[in-house]
Design brief:
Elements lengths: L7 E4 L10 H11 L5 H15 L5 H12 L4 H16 L5 H12 L3 E9 H11 L3 E5 L3 E2 L2 E2 L11 H13 L8 E4 L5 H6 L2 E5 L3 H10 L3 E2 L27
Parallel strand pairs: 1-2, 1-6, 2-3, 6-7, 7-8
Antiparallel strand pairs: 4-5
Helix pairs in contact: 1-4
Length: 245
């Protein structure tokens, strides 16, 4: 008799496990430490406004972001991301998210951070919060610099659903047995695909949908209290042509 496969609990990152958007927090750190010039700041503001007005595809935001990151040698970029994580991201992770991940693991569930964020930051959060795995944006490094040749599909919207479905199928798990925690309307495809959708700090429209459909609505807002260099800060990756951010 085949052993029943444990369910998977997927977790969005921005505004769900994290108070804020990781990309914005990295940019704020770069501005504060004067790592970027006025032109890059202006472009970041412009792209943010256009994206929020639905006048800029998400893929263009990804492309520009990875192009900007590609201006730094990979070792310098990773040092910058380490610093941004420790000072701007790590202190803003939610205690409730950490507890929820631990609760799922205590039940034998697989816990996966499913995020549109880059792989490096996502891995640091995964280790910090004790999750088992991650689904994140991946692009290769070539000639010592990050490229904008992102793997497809992108882990956003319908793409995140496709990647989660593939992840579950590879492990013999039905999405109808799985959980997904998210704040964002962009994640509606995956929320609708799992059997246990949970709205966390939801956007107004998602809150209405969740309430209409009887989905749990949670409020996470307690800092986890990470104040010292973490295990995640000490992660080391092999730098080379096969490395991806």
């Amino acid at each position: 008799m085949e052993t029943e496969k444990p369910p998977i609990a997927f977790f969005d990152l921005d505004h769900t496990l994290l108070d804020g958007a990781n990309g914005n927090l990295v940019v704020k750190y770069m501005v504060k430490t004067r790592r970027v010039g006025a032109e890059a700041i202006w472009k970041a503001v412009k792209f943010t406004v256009l994206y929020r007005l639905n006048r800029l595809p998400r893929e263009e935001v990804y492309r520009w972001t990875f192009q900007e990151c590609g201006k730094y040698p990979i070792r310098e970029l990773l040092r910058l991301l380490d610093e941004a994580y420790e000072f701007f991201i790590m202190p803003r992770l939610f205690k409730e998210g950490e507890r929820c991940i631990a609760e799922h693991k205590s039940k034998g569930h697989t816990t996966v951070i499913a995020t549109a964020a880059g792989e490096y930051i996502s891995e640091k959060v995964r280790v910090q919060m004790g999750a088992d795995d991650k689904i994140a944006a991946v692009a290769p490094v070539r000639d010592g610099r990050l490229t904008d040749e992102l793997n497809r599909p992108l882990p956003y919207g319908e793409g995140k659903k496709i990647l989660a479905l593939s992840y579950a199928s590879d492990r013999g798990v039905d999405l109808k047995d799985c959980y997904f925690y998210s704040d964002s309307m962009a994640d509606l495809p995956l929320l609708e695909a799992v059997g246990h959708p949970v709205a966390v700090n939801p956007q107004r429209k998602l809150r209405r949908i969740a309430e209409d459909r009887g989905w749990p609505v949670l409020r996470w807002n307690t800092p986890a209290g990470y104040t010292v260099p973490s295990q995640a800060h000490e992660l080391s990756f092999e730098i080379g042509e096969e490395y991806s951010l």
